[in-house]
Amino acid sequence: MYEIRKEGVETKPLSLYYVNMEDFPIDDQTFTLYRTLIDKVSGIHFSSGNRVVFESKLKEILRNRKMLPMEYYRCLLSDPEEVKLFLDALTTNLTSFFRNRSNWESLQHEIIPDLMKSVGKSREIRIWSAGCSTGEEAYTLAMVFDRTLLPGYTYKIIACDISLKSLHTAAEGWYPFEKAEKDVPSGFLEEYFDREEKGYRVKPQIKEHIVFNYHNLMNPMHSGYFDLIVCRNVLIYFDKESFFKVIRQFYNDSLPHSYLILGHSETLFNLNTGFHLKKGRYGCYYVKEGI
Ligand SMILES: C[S@@+](CC[C@H](N)C(=O)[O-])C[C@H]1O[C@@H](n2cnc3c(N)ncnc32)[C@H](O)[C@@H]1O
Fold this sequence. Notes:
The protein is of the alpha/beta class. It has 11 helices and 12 strands. S-adenosylmethionine binds at residues 42-44, 91-95, 99, 131-133, 137, 160-163, 166, 216-218, 232-234, 263.
């Protein structure tokens, strides 16, 4: 247990004192240590510009744990489970149903019709929602596939994140009225959700197509498996090296005819990745070389 030592004052374990974190500023060296660790384990990069955001999140954790910055840092080095909780607290999980409408138009009118041709009816179309947060993206994918696929075609979605809290909400599939009514078009709401006392629950017919998993994008997934990877508003938080690493893995994890959809602020422009930009009628997305 960490101890505060003051000359002439009896020493007590830290937890016995009231600890005001403002008395323990996170100095440059400590910030660099944390930043390097976070980068390494998750790809998420905290620039000096968002140091204030990082510090306020870290201080809250330290307050709850009653630990000092370096004490907690050492704890992270020795405890992978604590690293998971730490990352959960640091991630930005903002999301919504049908976020970035043009993606869904492209999916419905261009990508799904093409996947029906290339994959056929002999197996499920395999989709990966990478960085799915609280599930809205994966459920939107499922609704659009359900609406668009012709009889005889099927699909499966693997949805992953490193935020355990978000994955819990995702797997629950329950959303308050305001959230669902604001973002889900009424026809979809009626067809794919059950109305409950305080919100809407995704119907089992949609849920059964999705598996929610804890998976860190810094680790390999499923070589040569996916027909479509959707990773939006995730890599924007990554450093350049991790960004490339993940894109290389996406290339490896996808099949030759596959598609990749990134967020509106994420681009592979001028990068040699093996994916090329397709300017569709509704917006842009990527196709693996060879299409
Ligand atoms: C801003 S949300 C985007 C959610 C959704 N894709 C969308 O566009 O609405 C970013 C998500 O990426 C997740 N994330 C960040 N780093 C990750 C990593 N290394 N592996 C898996 N998920 C990660 C975060 O936990 C967060 O839920």
